[in-house]
């Protein structure tokens, strides 16, 4: 069954929704400039409410201190910056958490480059390619899923970028992604998750 991650969760009611729907992972964004950002203290409160849900902390080129502060709230570390494979491996070893590396996909070269993370990352998340200097994720932008046919071998992988309840069935059929990750597509406005959209997304994934 395709695993589901709902990203950019920042309020208790949405944690509750994700629990009720038994999604696999929820994501907490620790990128300060994001409309979805939470503090380590907020994340800890949300994580306490999350029960058995896996909690994924998102960072962009983090200093060790930033990860350290968030660590009690997260079971997985997801990296959205320019972290090299060696830095991913170092973070995984230092903090004893699985590391997921987001790779922006805009061309076949991005796909082949992701093979460098085969040992360093527990999961590679293929996402839309961010513009230089702009937000590094949660863009609501799709990339060409057909590029994934040339995916190099990695331990595990997921699909993100512009997914919606309406297109996720096609995305899974086209890519056979073992995990799908969504943020903007289940929001009414940046940072405002919509419970009905989350439920519709989960339903479409489970029917795929
Ligand atoms: O969500 C953010 O604001 C964010 C900021 C900095 C780095 C990563 C960020 N989000 C990543 C994700 O939450 C998403 O799951 C992924 O990029 C897909 O987003 P979307 O296209 O909006 O579904």
From TrEMBL:
Pfam families: PRAI. InterPro entries: Aldolase_TIM, PRAI_dom, RibuloseP-bd_barrel, TrpF_fam. GO terms for biological process: L-tryptophan biosynthetic process. GO terms for molecular function: phosphoribosylanthranilate isomerase activity. It catalyses: N-(5-phospho-beta-D-ribosyl)anthranilate = 1-(2-carboxyphenylamino)-1-deoxy-D-ribulose 5-phosphate. Its EC number is 5.3.1.24. It is an enzyme of class 5 (isomerase). Pathway: Amino-acid biosynthesis; L-tryptophan biosynthesis; L-tryptophan from chorismate: step 3/5. Residues 4-203 form the N-(5'phosphoribosyl) anthranilate isomerase (PRAI) domain. Keywords: Amino-acid biosynthesis, Aromatic amino acid biosynthesis, Isomerase, Tryptophan biosynthesis. The keyword Amino-acid biosynthesis applies. HAMAP family: PRAI (MF_00135). PANTHER family: N-(5'-PHOSPHORIBOSYL)ANTHRANILATE ISOMERASE. Belongs to the TrpF family. This is N-(5'-phosphoribosyl)anthranilate isomerase. It comes from Pacificimonas flava. The lineage of its organism: Bacteria, Pseudomonadati, Pseudomonadota, Alphaproteobacteria, Sphingomonadales.
């Amino acid at each position: 069954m395709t695993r589901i991650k709902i990203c950019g969760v920042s309020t208790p009611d949405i944690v509750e929704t994700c629990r009720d729907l038994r999604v696999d992972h929820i994501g907490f964004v620790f990128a300060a400039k994001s409309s979805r950002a939470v503090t380590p203290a907020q994340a800890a409160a949300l994580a306490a409410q999350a029960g058995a849900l896996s909690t994924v902390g998102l960072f962009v080129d983090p200093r060790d201190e930033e990860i350290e502060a968030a660590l009690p709230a997260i079971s997985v570390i997801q990296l959205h910056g320019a972290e090299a494979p060696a830095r991913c491996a170092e973070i995984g070893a230092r903090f004893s958490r699985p590391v997921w590396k987001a790779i922006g996909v805009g061309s076949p070269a991005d796909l082949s480059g992701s093979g460098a993370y085969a040992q360093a990352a527990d999961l590679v998340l293929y996402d839309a390619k961010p513009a230089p200097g702009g937000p590094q994720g949660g863009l609501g932008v799709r990339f060409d899923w057909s590029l994934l046919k040339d995916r190099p071998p990695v331990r595990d992988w997921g699909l993100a970028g512009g997914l919606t309840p309406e297109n996720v069935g096609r995305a899974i059929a086209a890519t056979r992604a073992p995990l799908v990750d969504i943020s903007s597509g289940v929001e009414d406005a940046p940072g405002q998750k919509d419970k009905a959209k989350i439920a519709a997304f989960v339903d479409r994934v489970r029917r795929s």
